[in-house]
Structure formats: C-alpha cells, structure tokens
Write a structure and sequence with these properties.
single chain, Growth Hormone, Chain: A, 2 domains, two-stranded antiparallel ribbon, 2 strands, about 75% helix, globular, disordered C terminus
Length: about 325
C-alpha cells in the first residue's frame, strides 16, 4: 500500500512540476526528498543488532550482478534508438556477466543469492510472477502518459491525475487480499489478480483516439486492483517457501525481482511501442500524420503487457496450493 502511495503521488507531482517549471525538476525534487528520508531514517528506524554479525559480503557477486543488470537495461534501451549494434553488444555482455554471476554464487561460501532456493518449483515460479506483474504494471504507467499526451492531447499535469486510478486500485485491494491470503491461502488470490489484470490490459489494448477518459480511468483502476490482489499474496507466498534463516536473502530477492521488473517493463514496453510505431514516428514528427494514427502502436504495447499477465496465470496454475497454518512463533506458516 505504501509503495503504491508513492506511485500515486509521483505522476501527479511530476506532472505539476513539468507543467509549472520544466522536466528537470522531476529529478531535482529527489534531493530534498532524499535528505528528508535520510534524516527520518537516522531517528525513526530502530537499531536492531545484525542477525549474522560474522557474515561477509559477496563483493564479487555484487559487482557481477551490477554489470549484468546495467548492460541488460542499457542494451534494451539502446535498441530503441538507431544504434542497434551497440544494443546487441550490450545484451551479449549482459549474458556473459549473468553466467559469471551464477558461477560465482555456486562457488561462494556466503553467496549474495542462495541459488539452492530456486530448486523448489513454487519458489522459482512465484518469483517469476513477481517479475511479470511488475513489468506489466510499470510498463503501463510509463507508456500511458505518452498515449494521453500524443493521442488524446491531454496536458501533462492532467495526465498525471488520470494515472492516479491505477495506484488507487492497488491501494484499495492490497491490504484486503493480503489478509484474505492469510486465511484462504495464496494461490487463488494470485490467480484472481492476474485474471483481473489480463482483462484490464485487454481493454487497454483496444484504446483509440476516441476512447473517453472515463473508460481509461476504469481500465487503469482495474489493472491496479488486479495487481493489488495478486502482489501481496505473491510476496507472502515466496516468503513462505523459505526457511527462517533465508528470509533476509529472500526479502532482498523479492525487491530485486520487483526492481528488475520495473526496469525491464520500461525498456521492453517502450521497445515494443517504438517497433510498432515504426516510420509513423517520423511522419508524426513532421506533422504529416494525425496523432490518432499512433494509437495502434500503444495498443500493441498494452497487448504485450496482457501477454505477460497471461503467462503469470499459466505459471501459477503449476504452483501447488498451500493452506496457511499458525506457526509456533505466531507468524503465518504454510504446509
């Protein structure tokens, strides 16, 4: 809920800053926000002793995963431009460093990522589902302002307000279905959430220049609601697949999959839209093409996001349903 609260305020504040000042301010605003966060963190976050004070950081793994992720995102982003060779080269470098990272993790006595956890089918599939649902959601949030601005001719600040429908939907459902999953198990809420997201993205893939703002808000709200229904149980399900000693690394992995999904969502969805638009972009830039003619490119990108959600449904069907039971320490466990 609080993650999406930030996502809800971001487009609104960003749209206002862009309209009132300039686009540079959407980056400059992070300076005071960061300072406030540091000061609050120093005084509010409790100081707990380390769980494993003798543990050592896997510095080699950190460097390798940093390069692997960086070249992956750089390569996908570069493919959107004119230098496709550099983009392919960066992706090839990324593959090499991912291989080196997995070798490093298998050899390390204290790995950054415990690869043995991925031997469990449920653990692996549900982590992939976190990646997929994040890719689809962030892809829509990044692409939708362009659709509203280019195709609908809506001002930047108003476009940010329209985007509020998505995080509002997630805020409403996230805590409710997080609690439901503690009672009925995680599989059914997760699949339900993916189904709702798939339906919402199907409607988004039919947008045109004449689609009303009201319908767009409803579709975004449904996407947010579906994401909230699935996301909280997904986090709980993945944590329930590991032992207590692996909860720290699993929590970090969930955040990594979330951030990776965000980065890949931006890169891949924009890439699909750029490829779909093709020569029409040049015609639009030369004012030789009506903005509404670009709606098809956005529709294909939203359809791509729908496919991601559909894959999530298929993966979750293969996950064993687990019934929650109270554990000895009072936390929710699964059997």
């Amino acid at each position: 809920m609080f993650t999406m609260l930030g996502a809800a305020l971001g487009p609104v504040v960003g749209g206002f800053l862009t309209s009132a000042f300039s686009w540079q301010y959407i980056f400059l605003v992070n300076i005071p926000v960061g300072i406030i966060a540091i000061l609050l963190g120093m005084h509010v976050i409790p100081r707990h002793p380390p769980v494993a004070p003798g543990a050592r950081m896997d510095k080699g793994g950190v460097v390798l995963v940093f390069v692997a992720l960086g070249t992956l995102i750089f390569g996908l982003t570069t493919l959107e431009g004119t230098d496709a060779v550099m983009g392919m080269g960066a992706l090839a470098v990324s593959v090499v460093f991912w291989c080196l990272f997995f070798i490093q993790e298998r050899r390390s006595s204290e790995p950054l990522m415990n690869l043995a956890l991925f031997a469990g089918r449920e653990y692996s599939l549900q982590n992939i589902c976190i990646l997929l649902i994040q890719m689809a959601m962030v892809g829509v949030m990044v692409l939708m302002p362009f659709y509203l601005k280019i195709v609908k001719g809506i001002a930047t600040d108003r476009a940010g307000t329209i985007l509020l429908a998505l995080p509002v939907g997630m805020i409403i459902t996230a805590s409710i279905f997080g609690k439901f999953s503690d009672v009925i198990g995680t599989k059914k809420p997760i699949i339900t959430g993916f189904v709702v997201c798939t339906i919402a993205l199907f409607f988004l893939s039919t947008l045109s220049a004449t689609t009303s703002v009201g319908h767009i808000c409803i579709y975004l709200f449904l996407l947010g609601a579906g994401t909230g229904i699935a996301f909280s149980p997904l986090n709980s399900a993945v944590m329930g697949e590991c032992l207590a000693k692996d909860r720290g690394s699993t929590s970090g992995l969930i955040k990594m999959m979330t951030n990776l999904g965000s980065s890949l969502g931006v890169a891949t969805v924009m890439l699909v839209a750029m490829i779909a638009a093709g020569p029409k972009l040049a015609q639009y830039s030369a004012h030789a093409l009506a903005p509404g003619e670009l709606a098809g490119a956005f529709d294909l990108a939203f359809f791509f996001c729908m496919v991601l959600e559909a894959i999530g449904i298929i993966l979750m069907v293969g996950v064993r349903a687990r019934v929650p039971t109270p554990s000895e320490d009072g936390e929710c466990a699964v059997i």
